[in-house]
Fold this protein.
Amino acid sequence: MATYVATNVQNFPDPNPDFNTRLLVRATLSSSVVDGGAMISAWSGVAATFAEAVDTSRSASGSDTTTTVAGPGAIPVRAGGLAYAVTMSNGVVGLAGPAGFTNVTTMGDASMKADGEYAAQATAGSVDPRWTWFFNSPGSPRTWLATVLALNQAGQVQPQAAATQLAFTVQPSNATAGSTISPPVQVAARDGAGNTDATFSGTITVALGTNPSGGTLSGTRSVAAVNGVASFSNLSIDRAGSGYTLTATATGLTGATSASFTITAPPPPPPPPAGGIVWDTMSSALGQHNNFFIKGFNPRSPRPGDAIVVTVFWVGSGANIVDSVTDHLARPDFPPVGNRYHLVEYVSSDNISMATYVATNVQGYPYPTAPNVDVLAVRANLSRVAFGGIMMAAWSGVAGDFAQAVDTSMSRSGFGAASAEALVGPGAMPVNAGALAYAVTASRAQASRFPPQGFGNLLTMGVAPPDSFSMQTEADSAVQASGGSVNPQWRWFFQNDPTCTTTTPCTWLASVLALNPGAAPPPPPPPPPPPTVDAAQSGVVASPTTITAGSGTSTITVTARDASGNPVSGVNVVLSATGSGNTLTQPAGPTNASGVATGMLSSTVAGTKTVSATAGGVAITQTAAVTVTAGGVSASQSTVTASPTSITAGSGTSTITVTARDANGNPVSGATVTLSA
């Protein structure tokens, strides 16, 4: 749909003199269309020039099979302005209009429906019209379109100031590492007064600002602004951390920094199977009509390393119309993942076909994620438009190499008539011990069936009139405990469908393939022995080399090296020192990546201390000398003695001996002594 605006319309009689003399609006198309129409409305009081009348508008589209909320997105509206909103769909169903809007008109026919709404804004702000479309078309998505524009009131439009700065209008939210930040981050170009400049259409780029964990920002990081706003819908960060910020830049504008946010580590993946092949997850969709079929593994993706089996069904026979099978992330732009899907079996007969593909050791997508977020989607790309669908299942424990995983497969087709049961199958084939047999069948008959004996049902799906085609499909599997053969046979009850007659029998198709288990992983090798510490290459260093008794501390650094001088990490170091009164603090842990471990030495006894070390049990040749000096003179520890203690007046002499010691009793040399009596 396309929306046009004319302002200050003139040159027609008003009021019109009669019913036949009226203003008509004509849309001139470049080519003919099957169906279409026009919705027109007129408004008084709108600014006379188009540039003044219309400055903001926005559109969006989407599709769904069930009830969905549709809208073009939010736009700013000036005080006194009018918001005009319109939607249409090829789903002719009920819908509910946007809250706060008044209906202009609703119209439709057998193939489309449209609805127009308006809302007059008393004050400046924004509008975000959202309709609810009540779709109910399983397997056949319906498309919706939506547009909103603002008409400004005459005389109320002031010239829009040009943008000078950026601002985050939707801040980044907390998210899991590797998953999309939701809702989408939005950055607006604003003028000096903080108003969004709806004329700005330049490119805005976001990047990591504060990066506490060395993370990488992925997704589309540069986006052209629409109505002054850039929306970043698929940003993600690969490492957990707290305090991340984003920055926004644009040429000529002052940049912005977001609020901080946290990226948490994803929960651990489920453990792999202890041994053998086990089913993991599956999904399917039938009733598609396009030149491709696509389905996501909702609600969660397969485990990385799984094997995925994909069977594509379609109406038509002849050559295989599947050009390729690819996988993608279920995001708006469906970015490719890149696993390779190999064609294993193709069978076709009487206007019905199916092809089965296998990918092994699938990788390259975020896992695990929140339910229905960034799930792996598989797409069958067709050479023409067709009716059909896709069925897919994933198993853990399958051999990672395709040539080792798949070595036997076969297919067959046939016919079933009314008033008869048919035992059908692709035939018998050999299967290795521990392998998985995957068997699938399809028919255009609306008939029930029994699964093959010894097989468990995986998926059953079908469509029937009044849908566009008729088809029933079923996939079954069985893991073989021992080597041998399998011969899957379904019992189709074609008598359930009166269209299956002897003259127009109903076609059946059947395929089977075997997936071999992967070899049990070998135990991890023992860690290599650490290099031998070399006594001569290693070293012991003290700093400082002189300390004061009772108060000083020397750091002892031991560096362990091998015979080539390379550092030896992870070895324990033990220190020792000569003399008495020592306190040795041993290293807190083994040597680090540089081969270094440190300890401490202090002592209360003066003298020269020789510090030695062993590293990894090897006595290091080098030692370190630490000189411990006495402290200051202690009054209580120092002594004064006289000899003799009695003398004759006028002729006797007594020798006075002063011994200066520090607080730890160490003799103090060089101190000046003054006597008094």
In short: The longest strand covers residues 376-396. The chain has a mean pLDDT of 89. The chain is about 0% helix and 45% strand.
